[in-house]
Write a structure and sequence with these properties.
There is one protein chain. The protein has two domains: 44 residues, no CATH class; 279 residues, TIM Barrel. Helix content is 33%, strand content 15%. It contains eight helices and 13 strands. The strands form three sheets. Strands 1, 3, 4, 5, 6, 7, 8, 9 and 12 form a nine-stranded mixed beta sheet that branches. The radius of gyration is 24 Å and the shape is globular. The two termini are 12 Å apart. 35% of the residues are buried.
């Protein structure tokens, strides 16, 4: 029996529709907390004098566009999608530095997007939330729309959960996707620095489909009541967390991985290439290389993770069945 002339069309259309039956797996975003507060001359929050480790770039000033460009280049090399800049209010030294970061990012055509983490810049008095939203939108979102990071289809804006700064009732601006980052039991995204008494709030993880990672925490040189977790990296705590992130990504249980931090040197959680006072591995790129390995694996595993079969998804099941039916009708009419 000779097949109808249009049978190849029927077959091709059917086969073309079959891929729609599989999920288009989106890989998780990788974000990193970024601190723009260093100035050897003393204008920023830190002048490097109490910090035991050193960036391979030296005791840099954060508003140096050359330094910023190098940071962005490294982040892009690590497949980091966005940097969350610790921001300390309008017209502050950090605010002016943040403007330089955005200008540098735009001029260097980087793949790394930027957004802000609002710190408790006026914690002694209530802040004007509406004015803050307007300032961020007009200063950073509107003029830099191509490089401002969007999450859930809106510009992402985080608030740190400092006491009397954020709570369940603080106003949200519908122009933004607003997330609370920090250690309290009500935060959206955990700021993971492993302070022991805060662990009661961390679990279960992930929270809000965000998994936090921190290579080390050690504020011995910063605070009298200090805490230390994996000072020498010998326990492999960073690697363990990355493996947890990979397992969650394979299950499509997370949308975001956040790394604390790019360059929080006072608490020693940084992955920026640096000479480390206590690391068992003297290579200044030790954490950098680990991060690169796992970010690449994260993107690959999420993309190649368990696929949903076409008949398990009602929408794609309907598309495939209707498509085959239409192709069958065409074949019959033209046969």
């Amino acid at each position: 029996m000779k097949a109808p002339l249009s049978f190849p069309l029927f077959l091709c259309l059917s086969l073309a529709l079959m891929p729609l039956g599989f999920c288009n797996n989106k890989t998780p975003y990788v974000g990193v907390y970024y601190y723009a507060w260093y100035d050897p001359n003393g204008s920023g929050h830190y002048n490097w004098t109490t910090i035991p480790d050193r960036s391979i770039l030296g005791q840099y000033i954060s508003n140096d566009s050359t330094i910023i460009a190098q940071h962005l280049y490294w982040m892009q090399d690590l497949s980091i999608d966005f940097a969350m800049i610790s921001w300390w209010g309008p017209d502050s030294w950090v605010d002016n530095t943040t403007k330089t970061i955005f200008e540098t990012a735009q001029n260097n055509v980087t793949n790394v997007k930027l957004c802000l983490l609002i710190e408790a810049f006026n914690n002694t008095n209530p802040i004007d939330y509406n004015a803050t939203y307007d300032y961020v939108y007009s200063t950073y979102v509107a003029p830099y729309s191509s490089i401002y990071f969007r999450y859930q289809e809106k510009p992402l804006l985080l608030f740190y959960n400092e006491v009397n700064f954020t709570n369940f009732d603080f106003p949200r601006d519908i122009r933004f996707t607003v997330k609370i980052s920090g250690h309290s039991d009500y935060v959206d995204w955990v700021y993971h620095d492993a302070v022991p008494e805060m662990r009661q709030f961390y679990y279960p993880l992930p929270r809000d489909r965000c998994f936090p990672i921190c290579p080390r925490f050690d504020d011995f040189y910063e605070r009298p009541n200090n805490h230390t977790v994996d000072r020498t990296y010998e326990s492999g705590w960073y690697i363990t967390q990355w493996k947890e992130a990979l397992a969650l990504a394979e299950k499509h249980a997370i949308d975001v991985v956040t790394i604390t931090s790019w360059n929080e040197f006072p608490e020693r959680s940084m992955i920026e290439p640096h000479y480390d006072r206590d690391s068992f591995d003297p290579d200044p790129y030790y954490l950098y290389n680990i991060t690169k390995q796992y970010t690449c694996e994260l993107k690959g595993r999420a993309a190649l993770g368990p696929q949903q079969l076409w008949y398990q998804n009602p929408l794609t099941f309907g598309i495939v069945v209707i498509g085959i039916a239409v192709a069958g009708i065409i074949a019959k009419e033209t046969g």
